[in-house]
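Hi Q.,

Before the meeting this afternoon, I wanted you to have the zinc ion prediction in hand. No need to reply - just skim if you have a minute. The sequence and ligand are here:
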Amino acid sequence: MTVLLKNAVLLDSVRNNESADVLVDGSTIKAIGRDLGPADREFDLSGCTLLPAFIDAHVHVAVDDSAFREDAIRAWAYNGVSTVRELGMLSQLSQDDYARWIGTVNSQPENATVVAVGNYIDVAGGYGAGPNPNHPVGTLITTAEEAADEVSVHHELGYPGIKIGIHDGRMDSTPHLSPEMAKAICDRAREHGMWVAAHIGICRGAQFMLDAGVRELAHTPSDPMPDEMIRFMAEHGVVMDTTVGDPDKAMEPPPGMLMPGGPGGPGGDAPMGPPPGMVMPSPEEKRKQWKTMVENLGRYHRAGGRVVIGTDLIHSRDFMKDAVIPVPELRALTGAGFTLQEAIAAGTITAAEVVGTGKEEGLIEEGRLANLVAVSGPVDESFAALDRENIRLVLHRGAVIRSEL
Ligand SMILES: [Zn+2]
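Predicted structure with the ligand bound:
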């Protein structure tokens, strides 16, 4: 099966609004140029911009026993997000069942590809294993040796990375991995060729994790990063996930704070609220933190640091509305001083490289997967053109899964 996309304006981190036709053969891009037809199916993309589908490097798709977010995975693909990385399983499923489930969802053509890490490794009561209802089920360890062995278990199950975390706002009063445990996890992961991403909220936690050998921060710190930290991170190729969210929605608790039983959470209509012991920032504080995060992203980028787009999406009442190209994250990057194409790189090729699909997708290039999204009109620094209502065509592994031309 061949598909010809005619008269498109191509935009990715390399091609800057270049006019061309694209020929897709099977799941991959076969040729880019002119006079490439005929094909089994043809689409006229006059007036549209064609981009690589996006990659969200930080989401959660397994949040309780019964509700894997298959609706979310379908919505992401439909809305132009070809791959999501599940950065920490928040389900009580066994690791084996989960690994099997990932294999099944990834074999279905209409689903976004899921790259997953399995559950957290933590001490009892820690961020990834504690009583917090959002993070109920990490693998509990008590020594550095156990921590390292658990990394090997993840490796055998086929997970490409490890997620750990720390409640860094109240590090002194909550159990957490010791520096030796965190280091043992990083050392063993390196032996297996796996990456380690760490949940942090502020620079204190970031420093703890960087000292242990962590080379990805799953969030941007919400307090100003010291120059020294930025320099160290850039030198060591540390990846930082955006997860700044939408400043206009700053009054809502972030998705990770939704309680099971609360609006958008699995089951029930109990009031939404922060986990026990956590104090939610006021709207003003929240907005201030957002500004600081954006400043950190800009400073890290100017120092040569690697930034990838991540939303931390967990719960939603309507994934078709929320599992979308992360426009607020992209917009935050251009606001932080990224060029349009640098911001696109953070959500496409750089994110693909970080999650492990960098040889297959992330660019409009011959030989790569035809994971493509066409939107109506030009794309500017606001990224408003990437809103889901504006999408006209989506190809996922070469299959036309959405057409509104
Ligand atoms: Zn998360």
